[in-house]
Design a protein that fits this description.
The protein is mainly α and about 325 residues long. The chain has helices at about 5-20, 40-65, 70-85, 120-125, 130-145, 145-155, 155-160, 175, 185-195, 205-220, 225-240, 245-255, 260-265, 280-285, 290-300, 315-320; strands spanning about 95-100, 110, 115-120, 200, 205. It is about 55% helix and about 5% strand.
Length: about 325
């Protein structure tokens, strides 16, 4: 990708991210037919627009449902850690935007285009900056590898509409909380369609965003992509100088919170049934023992025991004090 093309795509990301947080009144007008770009470069620009518009819509739905935990110092810290980890990946030229969802559910969401949302519960249950960085790095891998975008692009119309597998009866409320009107149903619907709708490179942004919500909240991306994101994310965090076993420590801690033993974390098997209700994380990801076994296999290959990484507990502990008391945070 040429430098001018990188700058063009970065400008799209900036404009759409500003629109996402309310700094732009209308969607940016980007001329995809700029002279000087090859057909392939134009295709990449259109793809970037599509990706960011779908991701912005998905992130908006999550923020609307959960609410945002609006502590600017903490959000700025999360962005600092996230962008640092991203700079250690092969996606350093991408723009990432991080925010915190006001729910005690332990999860993090990667929306296409670089919108990454962590929950208050995820931050609270981390014990160090290294663990926070590892969780974020997993989501960066999802975005950078375009896992969601490729999944959506491969879906048929029936799959996109949820028809192929029959009616979806028990979708979480998050999927439907921001149902969009058809484009011509109302003035608001028409404006919305102009803003983020339309078939971009053959994929309808509104329909794709709804299908994407079903994937991240119910169906999951699939074990292979989650395993890839775990290994890639661990690599980015390690390359950033963080403690190699941060992600396995985090995963084991949340597994123990569900009533399992530490030994269960490392047996490499699908989890036994917990007495506690399955979370969205449980439904959409492989079991913690399977994920840990996959990560440990990678760490053994790179001789991670010989790597001295930082945990960053002091700074993280100071930032965690900015979280709300657990009883006051919204439960998902």
């Amino acid at each position: 990708m040429t430098r001018s093309l990188i700058l063009h795509v970065a400008n799209i990301a900036l404009c759409l991210s500003l629109a996402f947080i309310g700094s732009c009144a209308t969607s940016p007008e980007v001329n995809d037919q700029d002279d000087g770009y090859s057909e392939e470069e134009k295709r990449l620009i259109i793809r970037a627009k599509k990706e960011m518009e779908i991701g912005r819509n998905m992130a908006g739905r999550l923020l609307r449902f959960y609410g945002v935990y609006n502590d600017q110092k903490l959000v700025r810290y999360v962005n600092e850690v996230g962008n640092y980890v991203a700079s250690r990946s092969q996606f350093a030229e991408r723009r990432f935007m991080f925010d915190i969802l006001n729910t005690e559910d332990i999860n993090a969401y990667a929306c296409p285009g670089g919108y990454i949302l962590l929950t208050v519960g995820a931050v609270r249950n981390a014990s160090s900056e290294a663990e926070l960085a590892a969780v974020i790095a997993h989501e960066i891998a999802h975005v950078g590898k375009e896992h969601m975008l490729n999944k959506l692009a491969s879906m048929s119309e029936d799959e996109m509409d949820g028809k192929k597998s029959g009616p979806q009866k028990n979708l979480p409320e998050e999927v439907t909380v921001r149902k969009r009107p058809d484009a011509e149903e109302s003035a608001a619907g028409a404006l919305l369609a102009k803003y983020i709708g339309g078939n971009i490179a053959g994929l309808n942004a509104l329909k794709a965003a709804k299908a994407g919500m079903s994937i991240i909240l119910e169906k999951g991306l699939g074990a292979d992509l989650e395993f890839e994101a775990d290994v890639e994310g661990a690599r980015y965090a390690i390359d950033g100088g963080y403690y190699p076993y941060a992600l396995t420590d985090f995963l084991c801690r949340i597994h123990i919170k569900k009533g399992f033993s530490k030994e269960d974390c490392f047996d490499g098997k699908p989890s036994k049934k917990s007495s506690k209700k399955d979370s969205i994380l449980d439904k959409t990801h492989p079991s913690v023992p399977q994920r840990i076994a996959n990560i440990m296999s990678h760490l053994q290959k790179i001789d991670a025991k010989e790597i001295v990484g930082a945990k960053g507990r002091k700074r993280f502990k100071a930032m965690k004090k900015r979280l709300p008391p657990a009883a006051n945070a919204k439960q998902g």
